[in-house]
Amino acid sequence: MELPDDGLRVEGVSFAVREKAILRDVSLSASPGKTTALLGPSGCGKTTLLRVVAGLERPDRGSVWFDGDDVTGVPAHRRGFGMMFQEFALFPHLDVEGNVAFGLRHQGMSGGQRRDRVTELMELVGLSGYERRRVETLSGGERQRVALARALAPQPRLLMLDEPLGSLDRGLRERLLVELRGILRRLNVPTLYVTHDQMEAFALADRVAIMDAGRIVREGTPAEIHGEPRTEFVARFLGMENLVAGTCEGGRLRTPVGEWCGLPAHTGPVLALLRTEDAELVAGPGGGVVTGELVSRLFQGTRTRVAVDTAAGRLEFELPGSANLPPEGEVLHVQVPHVQVVERAVAAADG
Amino acid sequence: MDEGRAPVAALTPGSPLPQGRARGRPRFAGAGPALLLLAAPGVFLALFLLYPLQGILRESFFREGTSLDDLHPLVDGTFYLERAWFTLWQAAASTALTLALALPCAWALARHDFPGKSLLVAVATVPFVLPTIVVAVAFTALLGPQGALNSFLQWAFNLDEPPVDLLNSIWIILMAHVFYNFAVAARIIAAYWAKLDPRMDDAAAVLGAGRVERFLRVTLPLLRPAVLAAASLVFLFCFTSFGVVLILGGSSYGTIETEIYRETVFLFRLPVAGVLALLQAAFTFLVMLVYARLAGTSPAGTFRGTVARRTSHGERWAAVAVLGAMLVLTLLPLGALVERSFHGAGGYTLEFYRALGENTRKQALFITPLTAVRNSLTFAGLTVLVAVPLGTVAAYGARRAGRAGPWVEAVLLLPLGVSAVTLGLGFLVTLDRPPLDLRGTWLLLVVAHTLVGYPFVARSVGAQLRGIDPRLREAAAVMGAGPLRVFVEVDLPLIWRGMAAGAVLAFAVSMGEFGATLLIARPEWATIPIAVFRYLGQPGALQYGQALAMSTILMAVTGAGFFLIDRLRYRELGTF
Which pTM does this prediction carry? Predict the structure, then answer.
């Protein structure tokens, strides 16, 4: 793959703490004006990758490049990157202005210019007039904004956000997500966004990189990844749990719950993902129809979520509307139009 | 201050024990009402602390036949002003030097983990619990004219005269103070530092701040409460430093504390000594308030997440170097003391230890070192016998006092805020006449030692008490156990560690008590520190050798006692 010369490029980075591999041969890039989300379960190495990019940790192998320069050996304070930490790590001994202005010392600004910049940022994050407030008097959402303003103040060449919405409650998260998206769009700074929440990643990012046990296992646009998870890990991580073992032969997939045609050329035993999109209730068995006993149903307004016990275990589907469902315990036939083959997860070879 | 290492353990910040459930409403089934419990320690404090202090006040201003003219020496000339000034600046300088050394150690301890760390910390803290007399003698053994350093230099460079002459200089005083206090300062700061969110430093780095700037603009301001707590504690000790200044400073240097002693013992100007003692007590009380306010605070905004972080090789080596230097600084004077105690005119010998049974001065006022050892053990044993029940009852009383608990506790710890010499002076002027005439009885010594020893018991038992879930007692009571059985079967198994630790500390404090004992002990009651002091004052290699040997024994006893508590995993004391 041709790597871009602009923006961030991480090449083959490995990192271990006391013999324990945290990052294994990670490569990644982030172009100007684009937001790249690092998505993965907790403990997969997202934060560590961010720390390596920031210069807070030095990789055992591999290199970090920015705008064509190798910055692997450059200490954090000379990189000119901005970072927003998990739970924000605001300085408790400084007020809001002190926090936001902290990084401005190295910009060769006069006191007046610094104050102007702080005012400008407070406006950007919607906290005008908060300059003299003490950090501990701020709410979670306000802290989040101050942390963002602090990271943006020195006009970083690269912005890193580590679970910026992680510690906030749900309603606030959704509101701030929209705001954050607006701010990131306005700034033309390459951004790395770490999160374990797929909703956040898909909503904010231009590109998503999914991490598992220290590796990047998938990279692409949100639509690409959601449309085709490709591996069992990604599918499960995105909440697609309808995985059924089967065999493929000449574009034909046979599973204990049904048969599908028109799959790309696979031969031999495979793992099939039965997608819930466009699934609908049908009268009886047939091609591409899953049959099983209705275990539970959850009416959600426009859709109904059903769990069905089949020959391949429990599967879940979302059916449109209230869809004349039989009572629980009865047999159900569901037409599943979209089926994909995914790569089976293998147990990590080394750990 | 002298044996007064004391306050530390007793005023130590926060107990590591859970406080949650046990706090709140005091629901004690097994202990009588608070007032009854506090009666014994209350009477003890009133008789042996407040009454003597009042006696000093009376002696200074209200005694019949005295007039304010007796205080004339105080304002006559600048002598006392100079002493006060010296006391102040040597304490400030000692504190500054101690902190300068303690900060790197605190960094190494807080930010690095390695095998043997707790052992290293325990070893480095030993000086803090050693009697001042031992530290003073150890410094003469290291830096004195016949000290290990001079011996080595003379041997190495073939010199006829000892090249280093530090005895009776300000430098040796400062060094001894630093030696005494830096490990404790490091422990206080390190305990706080370890709780700081390391990502504060990371955040500052990403914002463009280099190493030095990060330390000055982020780490140091965040550490402020711990640094100030450590500073006020060290300042307090150095301000009332007695044994170190008396022995190492000679006649040229004197603090207010040594001046009180001089006025009392050599000049017999009790009113002057009294005014000095009261002024000093007022000042130390203020510093103690500062310390008490700051001790036990925790940094704001602690991050609970885990971040994989790695220290660079350079940093690890720096930490190893710092801690190595700390260990060497600790062991050098103590090693010199032991080495010199075996080093006679003709090489290594057991001569000084063999002579412990002899009164080498052949004077009636002198007792043999062995007698001093026996005296010390006797007094220390008696002190433990009184201090342990008294301290335990006091701890229960403070616990039972509910909301008033912290105040009660502060009052119970009052003896630690009064300097040793002041205490001795108070005893001298009040307990020699009715209504309380203890003159001529060794009870006087036991009372003095108990006064400085029992707060340790109260403090360590109190820490254990906080850890007892009151429901345990209730459960036992519901099952039919009477109050006595509840105490024996529920409380005792849980607090015995606190009592044991308190007993060891009270024992060590009694063994090392110097200032008060020096004022009130009759010649025949001389304890080890007093005997060491007397033998030091005598010319002659054998007498000096005997002082070294006694100091070595004292160091071994107190050091081993502290080590024992530390190894008992009695962490309450580990937070010095």
Answer: 0.82
